[in-house]
Amino acid sequence: MKITSITAWQVDLPLREGRYSWSNGNFVEVFDATVVAIGTDSGLTGYAESCPLGSAYLPAYAAGVRAGLAEIGPKLIGLDPTNLGEINRRMDAALKGHPYVKAPIDIACWDILGKAANLPLHALLGGAAQERVALYRAISQEAPARMAEKIAGYRAEGYRKFQLKVGADADEDIARIRACRAILDPGDILVADANTGWTRAEAARVVAAVADLDVYIEQPCPTYEECLSIRRRTARPFVLDEVITGPDMLVRGLAEDAMDIINLKISKVGGLSKARLMRDLCVASGIPMTIEDTWGGDIVTACIAHLARSTPTEFCFSATDFNSYGTRSIAANAPRRVDGGMTASDAPGLGVQPMVESFGAPALRIAA
Ligand code: MG
Fold first, then answer.
1. Which residue segments constitute the domains of the chain, with CATH numbers given?
2. Ligand 1 centroid – CA 11 distance (Å)
3. Active site residues
């Protein structure tokens, strides 16, 4: 089989809540996603989606997805999309870094492989390990009482895991964590995610002030070294996210006992091939994961569902149903949340049908 075309569409994803806010005053109101289709000489088409969390979260930005695809796309025409190893080696040889550009190519090729094998991706990623994937709800940064109210609302919809966006003023963040923990039941999970927003001193104050609470601390500071320093000052369970950029940082974190849990964002590490490697390493090392992405709609959610469904329950700390945060559906047969959980389709590949006719003219088309 050969790749004959690569097509990309720019797709706007407005938010149901109107705005998503996290540390350092950052927010997004309309997410900018790129949907990719890879055409082949077999007639099979693979799809994927890449959606950075704005431009100020990771070294990634929405227009960069399209610019990067224009750069590497011509070098992939004629390759066998079912040879995932070769596809990834060629992408890495053609462009240093930029994993969020390579992720949709890798994932669309996985979609083709699944369709060619007539198997769902969860079967190819290790086999179904759980039927229901437990979800967390991210609580956008607002005043403490408002965030507690939002948690109560999402709890009524079935969620039992919550990730508070903190990483602002330390005293206000302490109030946020206390207000939100107070309205939860024992057994409900609360993660305080600073998204790199605290200095070392601020983080030290916050972890000391919440030492009596059942709360997880996620990515308090920008660098790995700062996070490690805070990790050694707190007994709270500790999550690393932004600094776990690939297998190298995961191995370092494991060797240095830097975390109890990681956030495995599929586009941050370059797609399903690399995410699967890291997932397997985490399982072998006893590290649970939140399996998710930087953002996205129906196609990203389907991809998360397949990787999460093929991960044993005890190692799948949580996952994200990004398609329930937005107002726009971009693919048929995407996973839908039921009572704080979702599952992955048993249809071949990702099991979704992108509504390409609703996307308008492609932003990019490369053909043989
Ligand atoms: Mg995080």
1. 3-118+355-367 (3.30.390.10), 123-353 (3.20.20.120)
2. 24
3. 165, 265
